Amino acid sequence: MTRDKPLLIVIGGATASGKTQLAIELARHFGTEILSADSRQFYREMRIGNARPTEAELAAAPHHFIADRSLAEPLTAGTFAEAALPLLDRIYQDRSVAILAGGSGLYIRAVCEGLDDFPAVSEGAEARVQRLSSEEGLAGLQRELARLDPEYYATVDRQNHRRLERALRVCYTSDTAYSSFLGKPQERPFRPIYLQPLIDRESLYDRINQRVNHMLEAGLEAEVAALREERYRPVLQTVGYQEWWPYFDGTYDRDRVIELIQRNSRRYAKRQRTWFREYRPVATADEAIALIENTY
């Protein structure tokens, strides 16, 4: 990369680690705008369960891709990049810095590096995955992906049926690991610098548990109940939402819901920490600013 390119500050990290606050402080310092790379915060119908930034936080700096569409207009990693790249071009007309912040690693990768070229899925692979999913469910998908591609299994959201199935289709089609197709970056007209908030595991898990409690106080149960007819959507088969469906069906009680949300959130955070392990940890916005200005 050359030094004449504008800078993209990429802030990743685990849920509840402090990405939003760090992004806002940096946006205010550099006088720039924030693109959200949280694949659940795109949707207007989801507010509490995805820890959307508050109105005060949104007012503190210009944000994009926050509650800008309906669940009926899903945004994949590829279409997110298609929308984000022209927006970055517009921001760079007036500024030399922009910010991309969120916990959805694949969406960040799509913007910064482009998506990888996977083989066309064979009919046999599609049928095999469908059969596994219907006969053994999520546990079967997890077990098979762990066997065929332990590297990808270590970072993927293991509660996300769609991502597990997609990886297995590629494994079955190509007879090789899904992860072997990853990591072939495309040239971009900006220079990314990858940062994450510095936080120890114990403090992070405590924040996660507290966040879940705050969500419940803010009306999470009612929010999810209002989305019951949309429960088939993949974005609602994720932590904070999926745990309620058996509760509404009478399978277990509310205490079990809370326990599962906290547990699954911690597990998701652990996978995120693995995904973002190469990002530079920074303890404060001042540390990040010094790093950026001294390096770039």
Would you mind describing this structure in some detail?
The protein is an alpha/beta fold and 296 residues long. It folds into 2 domains: 7-115 and 184-295, Rossmann fold (3-Layer(aba) Sandwich), CATH 3.40.50; 123-181, Histone, subunit A (Orthogonal Bundle). 50% of the residues lie in helices and 8% in strands. It has a 6-stranded parallel sheet with strand order 3-2-4-1-5-6, sandwiched between helices. Helix 3 packs across helix 4 (105-112). The termini are close together. The mean pLDDT is 94. Its cofactor is Mg(2+).
Write the topology of this structure.
Layout: E1 7-11, H1 19-30, E2 34-36, H2 55-60, E3 63-64, H3 77-92, E4 97-101, H4 105-112, H5 123-148, H6 150-153, H7 161-174, E5 191-197, H8 201-218, H9 220-225, H10 244-248, H11 254-275, E6 280-282, H12 285-295
Strand content: 5-15%
Which regions contain 5 or more consecutive residues with pLDDT less than 50? none
Distance between the termini: 12 Å
Shape: globular
Number of helices: 12
> C-alpha Rg, in Å?
19 Å
As for the CATH topology of the largest domain, it is Rossmann fold
Number of domains: 2
How confident overall, as mean pLDDT?
Answer: 94
What is the correct CATH architecture of the largest domain? 3-Layer(aba) Sandwich
* Order of strands across the main sheet: 3-2-4-1-5-6
SSE run: EHEHEHEHHHHEHHHHEH
Structural class: alpha/beta
Q: According to CATH, what is the class of the largest domain?
A: Alpha Beta
Largest sheet: 6 strands, parallel
- The total beta strand count reads 6
